[in-house]
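Structure representation.

___
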Amino acid sequence: MAYNKLQTMRDNIEAIRLALRLGVEGRTAQNAEEREILRKYAGFGGLKCILNDANDLEDAAKWSKSDIELFAPTVELRRLIHDYSKDDKEFARYMDSLKASVLTAFYTDNRIVDAISDALKYSGVEVKSFLEPSAGQGAFIDSFLRNDRYPGAEILAYEKDLLTGKILSALHPSILTRIECFEKIERDFNGYFDVAASNVPFGDFAVADPAYAVSKEIAYRQATKTIHNYFFLKALDQVREGGLVAFIASQGVMNAGSPFIRMELVKHADLVAALRLPNNTFSDNAGTDAGSDLIIFQKHTGKKALSADEEFFIQSVVDRGTKVPGNKFFQAFPQNVICTDAKVGTDQYGKPAIVYHHDGGVDGIASDLRKALDETLHLRLNLELYNSNGIKPPTPDPVKPTPTPKPEVKPTPEVKPESPKQKPLAEKIGQKNEPLLKQYQEMKKKHPDAILMFRVGDFYEIFGKDAVEASEILGITLTRRMNGIDNRIELAGFPHHALDTYLPKLMRAGKRVAICEQLEGPKLTKTTKQRVVETVTPNQPPKTEPKPVNPPKQGPDKEIETDGRPDYSDNPDPRLFAYNLFGELVPIGKPKQQPRHSEYAPKPKPSVAVKDIPVQKFRPLSEKELAFYGSLNWEDNPPINGFYETMMSIAHRQMEEMRLEKESQEAAQSAGIAPGETYIEKTEGDFIPGGRTRQPKVTAIPIERDMSPRPFSEDIQFFHKNGSMVVADGMVGFLSDVRKSGATFTPLGLKPEQEKRAMLYITMSETYQQLYNYEAETHEPSEHLREHLNQYYDEFVARYGNLNEKQNVKFIIMDANGRDALALERGENGQFVKADIFDHPVSFSLDEVTSVDTPLEALTASLNKYGEVNLEYMSSLVDMNEDAMVENLAGHIYYNPLVSNYEIKDRFIAGNVVAKAEAVKAWIDCEEERIKGFPGYDGIEPFIAMSQDSLKALEEARPRRIEFDELDFNFGERWIPTGIYSAYMSHLYETEVKIAYSSSMDEYSADAPRKNMKIWEEFCVRGHYRTYDGMSLLKHALHNTIPDIKKSIGKDEDGHDIKVPDNEAIQLANAKIDEIRNDFSDWLEAQSSEFKERLVNLYNNKFNCFVRPQYDGSHQTFPDLNMKILGDRYGISSIYQSQKDCIWMLKQNGGGICDHEVGTGKTLIMCIAAHEMKRLGLAHKPMIIGLKANVAEIAMTYQSAYPNARILFADEKSFKADKRVDFFNNIKNNDYDCVIMSHDQFGKIPQSPEMQQQILQAELDTVEENLEVVKQQGHDVSRGMLKGLIKRKENLTAKIATIQYQMEQNKDTVVDFKQMGIDHIFVDESHQFKNLMFNTRHDRVAGLGNSEGSQRALNLLYAIRTIQERTGKDLGATFLSGTTISNSLTELYLLFKYLRPNELERQEIRCFDAWAAIFAKKTTDFEFNVTNNIVAKERFRYFIKVPELAAFYNEITDYRTAKDVGVDRPEKNEILHNIPPTPAQEAFIEKLMKFAESGDATILGRAPLSETEEKAKMLIATDYARKMALDMRMIDPEYGDDPNNKASHCARMIAEYYRKYDAQRGTQFVFSDLSTYKPGEWNVYSEIKRKLIEDYGIPAHEIRFIQECKTERSRKAVIQAMNDGAVRVLFGSTSMLGTGVNAQKRAVCLHHLDTPWRPSDLTQRDGRAIRAGNEIAKLYADNKVDVIIYAVEKSLDSYKFNLLHCKATFIAQLKSGALGARTIDEGAMDEKNGMNFSEYMAILSGNTDLLEKAKLEKRIASLESERKAHNKGISDSKFRYQTITHDIANNEAAIERMKADFVRYEAVVMRDKDGNPLNNLTIDTCNLSDEKNMGIHLQGLAQRTDTHGQYKRIGEVYGFPISIISERTLVDGKEAVQNRFVVEGNYKYKFNNGFIAMSDTHAACMNFVNALEKIPGIIAQYEERTAKLKADVPQLEAIISKPWGKEDELKQLKSDLAALDRKITAALAPKKEEQDGEEVKRDNQSQQSHQVEAPTQSNGNKESMVAEPPHRYQSSPPTIRPAYRPAGL
């Protein structure tokens, strides 16, 4: 039966309903009907619709058509669950659990399950204990237990989903059901169950199992990343030896490329069955077509080799042609694929796969499956192993001295099946001892009088009473550990190498000792087996416990056979023991295969002879296999997949063993020792404790050690890296080429004593690493490991001294982990003491807060631990109930009903408090309405009361109300209702105006049904091609744009008009638009107080609603932070309070902006915040991106702060092209604490194609909307805008098409950002991403930047949108920069576009134009250009509503200056060093002024300007002026040096500071962007260096250029040399020296040769010297750094610096919220456009009065142009007035004549009784009077008459003549004649336009009477038209008489200009300069430069601004001429 979604949904709902009802009633399903309902439950795997919203009917619109039928059932399901939930939290848990199950809940058909259970039963499998790890509703349980097949069987079932678990419990009350994850199963169940069977979940879902996650076996670590693999390994752990695991799983288990999981499975179990099921197995029951496999394993830990089947099973294959993955097992056994048809297709994820199908449906599949299972179980199932329960220790006697496990007791049939309690199982769990303790008890029974020592790993452990005795005798620590659940047992131990120390002590104490060596490798079994291999008795020689030839057989042990191969249960690393001179037992390394002693050789001392049993995980390879796999290597013949890699490893190991064995035999033969005989290294001595007899001397047999590199034979541990010192094969050496799968071991040739020291050190170091890692991972102390670490350390120090002593440091530092080991000691009072880790954990806070004194302290503890208010936890800390706690914390916490929990004040009263208050009030109203009439119904009243208190607090926290008088309104702000605009325009235009706004298009539309003279005349501009009436200008006013009006200046060669801007018309249009916009504020002012109140409320609710709390992060303790390492490496002793506050803000908001000044610790903020977000679950996998120069330091800081954090750092090597994909997969597949990479590397991450498509499509939609608006406006737009929009559209369309193609071609081939799981990005130096794309209609506005944006910024937007889409919230990222706003406040919009898209949408800001309409004012300056034409310059110069803009910014921003933070850094002493222009500069300035006036570039000595350059004339002029100010040689190399140029001044100042701070070796930075170092070319760097060397004797090696550093290494070397004082002067540009350079240690001065364009650049420059760590400035310069700005007079230097300073001030005030004004002015100069002409000319002249004059002239010219346009408009209106008055007179005369005609007609007309006129027609040429004949006659006249255009009488009617007139016309291309008839009076009257009816004779005759009847209607039309004209007359008269409003302003400006002219004329008049009555003569000769001690003399009223260091030195400085100043100034 096909899968029916609707029916399945209904069945599921009914089952859930019943299960919930049974839960309420406290019973289980009691009858067949109820059980049948529950069994129909099929899960929601095929019903993804439940993921959709289904709260209200409106949500149905979001559903797809295919799922809409399920909408109603989904609503029913949600309501059902909600009704049965205790509260919203429980409801949310149910729904979250249900939604999570959608991905995995695909239930198996009962017929399939029955086939499996029947086959196992038929094969003889009896089940006594059964495990179902993913039970669902219990299909496998039903099948295995049906018909009472296994009576008394114990069942343990796990089900993760809460509701499914309820159904399972109700259906199966007799089993033990756990409603939780399978990974939570207790360790006591290991090895307990007979069978585990299930359909396990599958997918790349991670599983939280720390034991597996930190396992040294790669398979277990991998298994935690894929849930299906995990279930196999975990279940295999739970079944006993011989037990079965039978799972249906995804094909991914066998098809996966990595073989490690499969290798681990077959290592511990036999493969019994592997059957591939068809894709339609789950079609009927779960609605999915997915490939799956049935895999059955039989646990067999003692297996000795792999079968051929299992070797096939390990190998996955990929078809080269189809790219289809598969498994070699099915290639070898195709009969194991259950299907009738197979074809290549795709799986459910769209990847290539073979699609199997079975035509027989589920019945056919079940039948074939049963047959295949019967066959494979018959062949491969080992029933003997299953029935034997595996190999177990001997059963202990009933009576024991210590508790032992009870024998297994199975439940009897008498146990009621309804009882959910499983007492026998629970008893087993509670009484189960650990395996090692079992063995101890068994061994103790055999040796009751001996102290048992168990070898466990590297330690000897002692238990129980033995441990108590041993600890007293040896002085070692006694601890206790759990023995089962209720009991504890004593434990003591010591390192294995200390046996020779402790054994004699026990012997001297008279104790007998039994040494139990480990018999089984920990890699091969979970339980190690021990056997006594030696006992030592006082006063007796040691003896070996005899190994029984026939050990007693227990149970099935007698059936175990061996084939002679190596046994895995034997010890892989046995020890030989010998006694030294002191009778101490010494282990002798790892032996090789030993030859026998000859029969004549003396017998050695009693010892233990143990065979060397090599570990072979797989069968020995054949010679052919050995030759093939042994030829593989990583250099030139690498393995092609994981299988080949594994086989290569096995082959190399086997070859190495063969080689060693051969060498050993050769050495033995050369020494004359028989093969197979044991020999012992040299042991001799004369004294044996206890009176032992002297043993004969044994001659040593020297065997040379193999010192060649070899594969490392041990497992790779997490602390192993290249250069790690390790022990392998009994030798000390180093690791290289470390990989996950292995490494190369290179032995070291050490002397014996050195080797002992090394081995002891390595053991100690590795113990430390294991201890730290364990405690950091688990946050649990390991006293066991700590004790061993102390023992190792104490022994090392006792033998070899402290780790940090000189003789040890040199040796330890050779180890890659050596520095970590050296940190195990710290210096105190001149001595080395142990680090804290020896005493207590340091990777987490051990001191858990258990009690505090006050509720406030409890709140602090809760915030620190959980990041939120946890009342339960807080109550546990204080002896106070929750109600009292809340009462005591009033004002500190508030109840938020929106999250159903308390929140601290910082979080609750923060952000948009208005919106939050509205939401809380809505909740209160809703709840009050709900319980109306039912008081106390569900106890909600207290929460309502608390919510009301919270609401009151929110309302009180609202920001100060902005009143109407404070607001500055822009006409066209999108938030203002259009009705207000309509009312205003109706008032202004004096007619009804309707305005509408389309938010999707960001477009206003306007309409006036009745236009008038205001629209047609007063607000109208007539262009050459088009008239722009008032409605057109209104739209421009709303959008704040200006029409692009054109005029013609002639024809081109083709006869087309030559169109140019009509600047006069544009200026007039701008004036009228300004009038519309400016009058809006006046109109608002005139409105009623109620109107103003409503408008103010609307504004305050939308914009003045943000509250930024004073975030106080002082309560945070940062549990994992390692302050010791931070202190050692960076000198950081504590975290700044500002850093804590910022981190707390980021945690509360989920991101934001960290706007901290340079040097205030942003890097540490970033690292701690990332780790805290990870720790608290606020982020799963954070990423940090930074500048390439800084990113390594960020990673180092993070690692220092959190040594145990899992950080993935993208270095250059790992990010090469060939390794990049692997790196991306590494991010995807691992749960890193943080991923760190550079900006450039981040740009290479593929972004989600879907997200790219979505964002680009949104941009394209906006462009298309703008284009549509443009087309609607017709020619009312600029051509440039139209072209720009079309180009933008084409580019976006191409990008989208490319992405679509890539999506189709590269499905699932590349890991993109979305798949990586990154959910928070920290962007260091975020200003690097400010160039983000945006759309705007303001195409002519300067300073907006490139609207196309950069790809780098776009990639970041993609990533942030991906995160925001996932979370559904704003932010998702943290921006960190000291210069978040680098140049203009317009950058704020782009910041908000990144981080706050939802909030912008709430403010109805959907594009840049909408934002600018609210917060920016555009200015349009009209000025004369070089051709004396007026041109318009537009820019967003003014910003309004700045406090609200600042509040919006500051809500998510933590802004701190270095002063705020308290950073100990020097102050900036800013000096403006004025330099008079040189004669060459003076001459060039004159040329520049002429060039600016004329545009003639030949004046400058260059070619004429091109057409393109002509448009950028002022930018070229500005650039020339900047170069001229720096050095004339920038203009032309022919200019020579001048002793008074900027380079000379700078060189002199550098030399002054150099000499002054020579003793301290003070350093200086020199910045210039205009001329940088280029080898072989003249540049200002080299010029100043030449002067410093030649004129001032500074050594050349002390002067460096940052551009010389081509590598990061050389760059770091120069920086270090600066800090050391070896380099004293460093030159560089902003980009190369402005960031990432920490060379401030000795900086005393910083020189700016030129000024950058952006305030942020200046800040970055200054930050090189003004930062923490500047020691020389602090000690010798009053903690100040001089910052010198060099400015040439009469150049742009000073103006540019002042403009930059003003910008920086405004930006700083905005960030700090310290702005007093609500409006700021940004200035009018930028790098893209240069300066305007007038200001340029004035500045170059050097006269500030001239600058003022230029401004006055510009304003006067603009006003005169405006007056001219106004007067032209008045003239047009006068003409219109004359025309209208003339029309009125004509109309009135016409009305009188028509009235006379109608009076005449009325006097003679005859009418019938109904008032209809009678026809009185007579025709001159027709004698007949009847209508029919007259009609025919008239029709004939109409057809045949031709009057040649003349009126010709044909008759009359009521005395009015009737005439006919003929007109020529064309019909079908031929000339024809048409006739029309008129009735003549004072005017000629027509009916039907003079044409008579040709088909109706009556109508033809009545035509003339009807014409006369129309006279009253015509009169009415004339009267109406005349009335309208008369109504326009007053408006026109008012327009004509309206004066120009700016006449007074123009007069005043002209008066000011005249006065200024007189002043300038007087100032420039030639006169002699006098001082104190004496003439002052100019001295043109050189004069000595002034020193600080003798300040430069004042020239007139102008003081010098040159400040120089007060220091003299003995060298002749260059001369300079006096400062220039114009005469009289």
